[in-house]
Design goal:
Length: about 550
């Protein structure tokens, strides 16, 4: 539409540059809702154990095959501003809890669909958003009430959480073994503070190498460093290793100022080189004197220093990533050393074995059998690059899901059970209101049921029948029944071990309802013209016509 506000006496008043597009009122709302719903529909078929995968091909032909909502939306190059808000929902969910991205986006899409129906009934967006906000608060309250407590010692429940997170992904075939690995890793790195377990997922390093199968994935009680031993004469295996971690270079420093060293004879040159060698030997001597027999250096190691370390039987690796050095500190108990003059025996860390091994044709250094490692590594194996990438995503979902569980110490039944319970309670809650607000609250309850309905649809079941059975089951007091997509009937989710962290559900409801509210409140979209037009004068009319026509 023309970028103008008024037309006084045939003279348009231009307030926006040429090429600007503007949509207002219901047009703007419908466009935004349609774009956001299109994004939700794109990921909806991936929900649940029978969800399908997406193949995403980028402009240079790289292929990603995934079932993970956040990955799908990141890889899709979405342009529409309202659709981008749905991508933000997935990103927020992924950042906050690491799983439940598809649930959050599908829920937001369904809330917008219900809101559109209400807009058709001439209900104002502010009334809808107010009803949705009240329903959201009630939903969070119900989720808290139906949750069950869990602690770090409930291994069986923790394994069930990890297994549920992997369900429907490529990793599902080996989910039993992989969930065990995820639980062990989380328990190793957990810090117990005032009776509560805290898990920093950054302390679990995930390394992936093609070859073998998913079931060859292993947990290493220590750190796997993707570097090789720097010198061929160095030992490839060190048992009962005393480890030093050095953040500075084992090299002679370059002069940092403009000072020059003047050498005018071969003797001076020789003396200069000998001086350098003496400095490097002094560095190595300090390392050996401390009792260290393994060195990890964040920066370079000079060839001469390598020679002396090899002669002393010390295993060394150089240019180790900062993130790996931090994990080695937590795994081995070593202190990070910046100045070798400060190196003492107390600064050394311990590992039962440090060994260079070949994995998928590449040399890597394994630091294992640490006493109480507070950082561990999961080495993922799989037949192809696409398989290990998807196993990595599944493992991250499981680990982050476990961390979210332990953070609140609560779980809720899966299989659409939590959503059905919330929908039932919100419908009861709506009875206390009259008029248009009540319609918005009921619409929120209907939208919550998109999760069990999508689970049924993706499993090839009749969604209406499945939902009716689930509602009938939840009419009984505090039901823990959800949809068993393998039999098509309702079943006790707690007995089946289909459980999810409470935090994932809380975050999904919050993210979805807040994004919906923001999209509904937009009634005017003004998008600028192309950048090449910006700042350019409008062209002169042909034949010197009247400028008022423009």
């Amino acid at each position: 539409m023309p970028a103008q506000l008024a037309n006084l006496g045939g003279q348009p008043i231009l307030i926006l540059p040429e090429g600007t597009f503007r949509s207002k009122g219901k047009d703007a709302q419908r466009n935004n809702i349609s774009a956001a719903r299109a994004v939700a529909d794109a990921v909806r078929t991936t929900l649940g154990p029978k969800g399908m995968d997406k193949m995403l091909v980028d402009s240079i032909g790289d292929v990603v095959i995934t079932n993970d909502g956040a990955t799908i939306l990141q890889e899709m190059q979405i342009e529409h501003p309202a659709a981008k808000m749905m991508v933000e929902v997935a990103k927020t969910q992924d950042k906050a809890v690491g799983d439940g991205t598809t649930t959050a986006v599908v829920l937001a899409g369904e809330l917008l669909k219900k809101a559109e129906d209400l807009l058709d009934q001439e209900i104002h967006p502010t009334v809808i958003t107010k009803g949705f906000r009240m329903a959201k608060e009630k939903a969070l309250e119900v989720l808290e009430r139906i949750s069950k407590p869990v602690s770090i010692n409930d291994d069986k429940i923790l394994e069930q959480i990890a297994e549920t997170a992997m369900t429907g992904k490529a990793a599902e075939r080996a989910s039993k073994e992989l969930s065990l690995i995820a639980v062990k890793a989380v328990k190793r790195v957990a810090d117990i503070k005032s009776g509560k377990a805290e898990v920093d997922v950054d302390n679990i390093k995930i390394e992936k190498k093609e070859g073998g199968s998913m079931s060859d994935t292993q947990l290493i009680d220590g750190i796997l460093v993707d570097k090789e031993v720097v010198h061929t004469a160095m030992p490839k295996t060190v048992r009962n290793a005393s480890i030093t971690l050095i953040s500075s270079a084992l090299e002679v420093k370059e002069l940092e100022t403009d000072a020059k060293v003047s050498i005018d004879s071969p003797e001076k040159m020789q003396a200069f080189l000998e001086g350098e060698e003496k400095m490097l030997k002094g560095m190595v001597d300090r390392i050996i004197k401390s009792g260290a027999n393994v060195v990890f250096c964040q920066k370079g190691i000079d060839d001469t220093a390598q020679h002396y370390l090899a002669k002393a039987g010390v295993l060394a690796a150089r240019r180790v990533k900062k993130s790996d050095m931090d994990k080695l500190v937590r795994a081995t108990g070593a202190s990070m050393i910046n100045n070798l003059n400060d190196l003492e025996k107390e600064d050394l860390g311990f590992a039962g074995i440090v060994e260079e091994r070949k994995v998928a044709g590449e040399q890597m250094v394994f630091v294992e059998e640490c006493k109480t490692p507070k950082a561990v590594t999961i080495l993922i194996r799989g037949g192809t690059e696409h398989v290990i990438d998807e196993v990595e995503r599944a493992m991250e979902d499981a680990i982050k899901g476990l961390a979210a569980t332990l953070e609140l110490g609560k779980i809720v039944p899966g299989g659409g059970c939590a959503e059905a319970a919330v929908a039932k309670e919100i419908r009861k809650f709506a009875e206390g209101f009259k008029g248009r607000e009540q319609l918005a609250i009921i619409a929120f309850a209907d939208a919550m049921e998109v999760v069990p309905r999508s689970l049924a649809e993706n499993a090839g079941l009749d969604p209406i029948e499945s939902l009716a059975n689930l509602r009938a089951e939840h009419d009984k007091k505090d039901s823990v029944f959800g949809l068993d997509v393998f039999t098509g009937r309702t079943a006790d989710m707690m007995k089946m071990g289909i459980v999810e962290p409470l935090k994932i559900k809380l975050q999904a409801v919050k993210s979805a309802s807040e994004a919906t509210e923001m999209i509904l409140r937009i009634d005017d979209v003004i998008s600028a013209g192309g950048s090449e037009k910006a700042g350019r004068m409008p062209p002169m009319p042909p034949g010197g016509g009247d400028m008022g026509d423009y």
